[in-house]
Specification:
heterodimer, A: mainly alpha, MetI-like fold, globular, B: mainly alpha, 0% strand, membrane (chain A)
Chain lengths: 300, 300
């Protein structure tokens, strides 16, 4: 990793050159601020997860009690399972659609600039706001539409159905995440030299054959990056759920991030810190897997 | 399937002409792929319809919004929704707060990240600078929910449980991504440029402001746009960090329509529209950098 990401601008010059003190002034304030704003809270959270702190006042160390409690909490287990389920499904949906769109948007089409702008647009809209818009569509317009065509299963709002509400969340999360993946796929598709396709068409490969045999293998790196970025983002899902179901009906769509935040209001501070620490460790495992899979290809 | 869909890449997309471009003339003249164009146009409705509903609902009267269907045109066009939303969210105040948070985030991110990246890439052979790079990058694997609860406590203790604290945290969470992009870009700047400036007696500070910072401008534009979008659209951080509801940003304020005024759809949609319009306008102005920056900078 070190050699892959090193900016070796100065490696040619003399080693162990004296550092101009101004450079410390450039870097150290940022490091201090970063440590206070991110590292300190992270360490504090991990330490407090081994205590019985309620967020203020005195506390004592209680060992692994919180962790044992986390692992035996059915509500939290459900939140983890739901978040994993949601992240997997949405990652697949986003990447399949974004990949197909990237191929279509790099083909010989009319109004290419306008179409690209439209498909990228959802990226710039706040998740919470668009979730509110969709919650209206799911709660009012979709049932009205279903009634007018007499389609029974959708005549009730899917947001009120504990078995179907996740579909709405996946839809909105995907709606918002597709543009980011799409931009990366477009870059990937454009990085393939045109002669490769020419050679393939000379051999009689057209259409889907080209996509499967050329585009997909040659953009494998981009697919991997996109899958990892999507999955990591979806594991933290929060505002889309707040806007659509607020975790309901009941707790059917409560995500891990949501359970952590809700716990804060209930005075479960130390307990939720144990939950957050476990959540963090899962993130680290995913990050390490990604580095192994992605060795030297990109820094994220 | 009598006519195979030729998906091939549009040669116009290639910024740099491939060396083997001579023999391409014939292929290029093959006509527009209308099948794909039409499919894309239909798919773009999935983006446009929710936006159309937002706009049309916003311009309806309360009576139309409640009993009409979501897809009908607002006839007559009414501005009453906007008027009421304006006062309910105290739009001028919340708009100024949102703009302020975003402005601090963009400026802070660009200044801190360029300074740090220059120091890091210039002194890569020194351990402190090299390790700092990985230290700052590591935050990419630390999602906000993990540190949120401790940050809420700490910002409360130092009286930063307000938009200023939110802006500082936004900058800190943008650092990893931004430092990564800037150091990657600095790698491509030849060291001779800087050496000749130093030969003329320029100090490190002058080299940075007169040479490095202007050279980084295109990357700063990209970093700035992403920092703006992340900050403007964020819901999680302001909702947790800012304790005084009167100081909330625009996306967070939209939640009042879920409870108190849930039947005045024209008012809530007018408010949603006012919350999303600024980022859509910024996107339409800057989309050239959004798209080129992400496709060139992030993916190497």
């Amino acid at each position: 990793m070190a050699t892959a990401t090193a900016p070796p601008t100065t490696s040619r010059r003399a080693h162990r050159r004296r550092v101009d003190p101004v450079f410390y002034a450039f870097l150290v304030p940022t490091l201090v601020l970063f440590t206070l704003a991110i590292t300190l809270p992270a360490v504090m959270g991990i330490v407090l997860s081994f205590t019985n702190s309620v967020g203020f006042g005195t506390f004592t160390f209680v060992g692994l009690t919180n962790y044992v409690a986390v692992f035996s909490d059915p509500a939290l287990l459900h939140a983890y399972l739901f978040t994993l389920f949601f992240a997997c499904i949405t990652t697949v949906v986003v990447n399949v659609i974004a990949f197909l769109l990237s191929i279509a948007l790099t083909a010989k089409i009319r109004a290419k600039v306008a179409l690209r702008s439209i498909f990228v647009l959802p990226m710039v809209i706040a998740g919470i706001v668009i979730a509110y818009v969709f919650s209206y569509l799911f709660a009012n317009s979709l049932p009205a539409l279903a009634q007018s065509v007499g389609f029974g299963p959708l005549e009730q709002s899917i947001l009120a159905n504990p078995h179907l509400a996740w579909i709405a969340i996946v839809t909105v999360a995907a709606w918002q995440a597709i543009p980011g993946a799409l931009l990366i796929y477009i870059a990937g598709v454009l990085s393939i030299p045109g002669d490769v396709y020419e050679a393939a068409s000379l051999d009689g490969a057209t259409g889907w054959r080209q996509v499967v045999s050329i585009t997909m293998p040659l953009t494998a790196g981009y697919i991997l990056i996109n899958v990892i970025i999507s999955f990591k983002g979806f594991m933290n899902v929060y505002d889309v759920i707040v806007g659509l179901t607020n975790g309901g009906p009941g707790t059917a769509t409560t995500s891990v991030a949501m359970s952590i935040f809700n716990g804060f209001g209930n005075g479960d501070y130390a307990y939720q810190m144990a939950n957050a620490t476990i959540f963090f460790l899962i993130g680290v495992v995913i990050a390490l897997l990604q580095m192994r899979l992605n060795r030297g290809k990109a820094a994220f | 399937m009598t006519t195979p869909v030729a998906v091939g890449i549009d040669p116009a997309d290639k910024a740099i002409p491939a060396p083997a471009a001579k023999g391409r003339g014939r292929r290029q003249r093959l006509g527009t792929n209308w099948t794909i164009t039409i499919v894309l146009a239909v798919c773009s409705l999935s983006v446009l319809v929710p936006l159309y509903v937002t706009i049309s609902m916003a311009f309806k009267t309360t009576k139309q919004a409640v009993d009409g269907n979501a897809f009908s045109l607002p006839l007559p066009v009414s501005l009453s929704g906007f008027r009421e939303a304006w006062t309910l969210t105290d739009f001028p105040r919340s708009f100024v707060i949102s703009v302020g948070v975003a402005a601090v985030t963009v400026t802070g991110t660009i200044i801190l990240a360029t300074l740090a990246s220059y120091a890091i890439s210039h002194n890569w052979e020194h351990r402190l600078f090299r390790y700092s790079f990985f230290y700052l990058l590591a935050a990419m694997f630390l999602p906000f929910p993990v540190v949120a609860l401790s940050q809420v406590k700490l910002t409360g203790m130092v009286h930063l449980d307000n938009p200023i604290g939110v802006a500082i945290l936004h900058v800190m969470f943008q650092l990893s991504f931004s430092v990564m992009l800037f150091t990657a870009f600095l790698r491509s700047i030849p060291g001779e440029l800087e050496e000749s400036a130093r030969m003329d007696g320029a100090t490190t500070g002058i080299v940075f402001w007169r040479l490095i910072f202007p050279l980084l401008a295109p990357m700063s534009a990209t970093v700035g746009i992403f920092a703006f979008l992340a900050s403007w659209n964020d819901y999680m951080m302001p909702v947790l960090i800012t304790s005084n509801p009167k100081l909330q940003t625009l996306p967070v304020l939209q939640q009042i329509f879920q409870t108190q005024f849930s039947n005045n759809y024209n008012v809530s949609f007018a408010s949603y529209l006012m919350a999303m319009a600024p980022s859509i306008i910024v996107y339409l102005i800057t989309q050239r950098w959004v798209i080129s920056g992400l496709t060139q900078g992030a993916i190497k």
